[in-house]
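>> received
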Amino acid sequence: MSLDFIPSADQIKRAPKALLHDHLDGGLRPETIIEIAEDIGYTGLPSHDPGKLATWFREACDSGSLIRYLETFEHTIAVMQREEDIIRVAKECAIDLARDNVVYAEVRGAPELFTRNGLSLDQVIEATSEGFRQGVVAAAAEGYSIRVESLLCALRQNPHASEIAEKVVKYRDRGVVGFDIAGPEDGFPPTKQQDAFDYLREQNAHFTIHAGEAFGLPSIWQAIQWCGAERLGHGVRIIEDIDLSGEKPRLGRLSSYVRDRRIPLELCPTSNLQTGAAKSIESHPIGILEQLRFRVTINTDNRLMSATSMTHEMTEVVKAFDWTMLDLQRVTINALKSAFIPFEERLEIIEKIVKPAYASIAADNS
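>> returned
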């Protein structure tokens, strides 16, 4: 059956999805934040009404500033300082993603952020993995199939990257599949953490790097050529190396290299609007990059802050660029091809879950 049709809202919802860029502390349920805050005596919330709190997070992140965007995390981090709360948040994350028909997800978090009250990095990592495990089981009881793995983030402005990289290797067969650095790009190039990336390569460990979001082409070049990133977290500003003034787009040396090497772009459309990396969905580079056959993937980044889901992100690009069901399948397979799990396990998800589900939607459409 042909997938060359523009999907309906229901078909987008039903489509299996793969997610590579989602922050654990950016996807809490408002109700959970309020309940934990009341239990631990945290008084900093702007509202104790779930609806109003959700609205506050979204509006606070619509400023167009990455710095302002990052400030909202103080509240979510504050309620993730106990093992039981980390387990709860991770469990609910897996359930919420599964209900959105995400079949594979790599969810990232910076363990150092959750050690304020004495938890060790190991306790944070193990609690996160336990929460994901519980969430997968709970989702299965609801009839959903999902696999959730952890990426461990280091903060590029802090000196803990090498320690976090060592934890990636320690836990890589126990729920952790890779490494990332996050935080402010400007003034904190990835090369400041070069020792961590050298160690990860020595250990044959996987890693992605936030690059090309708040800072431009130099950040992307350093992430790839100096640090050896396998994927680009966001990478949206690669568009700055593509000349669109003529009849046909002309790729520069860096953009050609990224496309030729099939380096995955972890694009997050709604989040990019909030941080000023794009002005509108219609003008978001994802449309051109997909047409030029970069390895585009669609992601949520922070579901709470962006009031988003994978279904919402897909719906927005379908509306903006008339993407077909085939386009959605392509970016889903792109994500799975780019996942940090073993090749045969990626292939199994593609062949046994993704392709049959898309074929079923196409058959129903005919």
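>> The chain has a mean pLDDT of 95.
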